[in-house]
Specification:
- By secondary structure, the protein is an alpha+beta fold.
- It has a single domain, classed as Nucleoside Triphosphate Pyrophosphohydrolase (Alpha-Beta Complex), CATH 3.90.79.
- The protein is 16% helix and 40% strand.
- Strands 1, 2, 3, 4, 5, 6, 7, 8 and 9 form a nine-stranded mixed beta sheet that branches.
- It is globular and about 50 Å long.
Length: 154
């Protein structure tokens, strides 16, 4: 089993009327809308990867401001039989500059959407947006086993 890191970003900005909008991309391979996401390169810091992927996929410059969620994605199996499992790191990023435009061929229509204008999205993408915009003080962690306070032995 191989492991790697995956960064997902929720990029938000304020409209002139004070409402929030988020950056989404339409994937070229599936035609589905998604948060910006990508693989963390060897030796690359996760926040740098979030910023790089947003620039590569949407031609938008962002600053990763907060790691909002950490979880393990379900295992997957490649066509050659290799198995992999990724750690999903979700960052809230602030828009700095740039108008969305496809840049790397992985997507066709990067665009800003108001929260009441979102296109159909998988529930996991909606959940990422919700967690990122909740502005909770701590990073969210998923747990499948007992937490520290539930453990009786070291």
């Amino acid at each position: 089993m191989h492991g790697n890191g995956r960064g997902s970003t929720v990029v938000d900005r304020r409209r002139d009327d004070g409402t929030t909008e988020v950056l989404l991309i339409r994937r070229a391979d599936t035609g589905r809308w998604s948060n910006v996401a990508g693989i963390i390169e060897p030796g690359e810091e996760p926040a740098d990867a979030a910023e790089r992927e947003t620039l590569e996929e949407a031609r938008v410059v962002v600053v990763a401001e907060k790691l909002v969620w950490v979880r393990v994605l379900p295992p997957m199996q490649w066509a050659n039989g290799d198995q992999a499992q990724s750690l999903d790191l979700v960052f809230r990023c602030r828009h700095v500059s740039g108008d969305p435009a496809p840049l790397d061929g992985e997507n066709t229509d990067p665009a800003w959407f108001g929260l009441d204008e979102l296109p159909p999205l998988p529930s996991r993408h909606l959940e990422r947006i919700e967690v990122a915009l909740a502005d909770e003080p701590a990073t969210r962690f998923e747990r499948n086993g007992p937490t520290g306070s539930d453990r009786t032995e070291p």
